[in-house]
Amino acid sequence: MSDFLRTYLVVAIFGGLGVMLVGVFVMLGAALRPNHPTAERRLTYESGVDATGDMWSQSNIRYYVFALLFVMFDVEAVFIFPWATRLEAYGTFGLVEMAIFIFILVLGLAYAWRKGVLRWI
Amino acid sequence: MLDLLAQLPQATFDRPPIDWHALAPELVLLGFGVLVTLVDIVFLERGRAMVSALAGVGLLATVVPLLTLWNEVDTASPRVLFDGAYVVDRYSLVMKIVFVLVGYVVILLSTNYIAEGDYWESEYYGLLLSSIMGMVVMASARDLISIFVALELLSIPAYLLAAWRKRDPRGNEAGIKYYLMGVFASAVMLYGMSLLYGVTGSTLLTDIAVAVADAPQFDAAIALGIVFVVVGFAFKISAVPFHHWAPDTYEGAPTPVAGFLAVASKAAGFVALMNLVFVAFPDRHDVYQPLIWVMAVLSMTVGNLLALRQTNMVRLLAYSGVAQTGFMLAPLTVAGDPGVSDLALSTTVNYLAIYAAMNLGAFAVVIALARKTGSAEIDDLKGAFQYAPGLTVAMTVFLFSLAGIPPIGGWFAKFNVFRSLAGAETTWAYILAVIVAVNSVIALYYYASVARKMWADEAPDGNLAPVHVPPSLVAALAITVAVTLVFGFFPGTVGDFTDVSLLASP
Fold this sequence. Notes:
A: 0% strand, B: two-stranded antiparallel ribbon, 20 helices
């Protein structure tokens, strides 16, 4: 077999295995698990409490916005902690660098504040 | 942990040398991006009138450092930054200028469209600038990590822009489809990158080139890595079979954004692909060439055949863009041939520059005519000559250029494709050249049928009131028509810029 075909045979086998594995595991699960459907078993499990409403429950978009703002500060912290331990070595260069970084992040916060996102009605 | 921290201060820190001039274009773009956001924060609604002009000025200001760099940088002396992860050579400068000018034309297209619709305006331009910045970074990225960062920087704003018509379900479909496909592509690509990194132990493209050239024991992993990385970018350039998102996304997105995705985003994908093919895998053409060959043939054929059946102009442009992707991929199928390697690179760069002008122009005409007809259906373009002769002539120029009719821009691009394919002198390249020729004929049919409807048919409702074309659209049309014609009549102008050996050899 030519080199060219052998190279792609690897890719084909790899892709085929990927698809097959998913299929096998799904079927394996279906074959092995006991199946005794009763009305109670079909209920959605929600911490032992009877489920209310249907699946299509909507949550307030504000949680999402606050989560995003949280991520902003979280990322900031991830970078600031290691930077702070080495600030003496970095000197003025490091200070200016971090100031620019924080400025751009604060810009995002200022944007959210001006657009009224921070108000919880 | 504390012991570890105690040891840290003993190591001294040397400030890395930073070539500010080489980074100036990115810094100018970043500055204007910040400025646009600041204007929005300070003035809120009162700033709306300013932001589009400000973003336009920002892009034009970015051209200045690009031109000064052009004089200083040549093939022999590329600016290498960050230990080789970021290289400014003439090839990257050409692509940066293309990205920035495309961005400028997109802003011209957007000015009235966004201001007159029910859209968020300041955010639009801020996101557009950051997406363009990602593309500008991509042109210089020579490291898997900087390529990935650039890719995300250009993609994430584009996902948001695609969904900008948020009150229209089709706008939402456009955004979600583009986002899911983009994330999927990123995942596939990252997997490929992780394999390459695992085998080579480096993220630097030049190191990867050395390591993958001769490593028989890792052949399988290298092949998988290369295939997955190329497939990841195939989504970005909407090559068949990874093109499904393109028509729906272009149709649902605001038309200027569709133009942006069709031109700039595609060009960014090509730049990344070329960086990888020419810098990281130059000696593994046995792996990537067959893959790109198949994608090129499929993209041309499937794109053209589907374009024949479209009734919506934006969808037609989407499928024609898929077909054009095939034409642009064709030279990369001979990229590993030492005799035509340089020609293949300059052909693709060349094609990207010409394609940017002609395709954006076509979108500009669609936007201008939609101001009157309110739709992008091809049947609504009927009889456009009767009430908008100028737009009809411009559209004819763009359509014939896309079809590759001499002496308009597109023919030179296609001519170069044939030149590099014929230069390779292999059977597969000749076969591909024949397929390119057949597909050019198919493409001419649907481009010409649109032109025929605009010239010969009667306006559907007999409404012959002239179209009011705002000045920014006129400027965009003038730029794109001029560039398309100049590239066609004087191919030397573009040839000089995109000529051989642009890529700095490592």
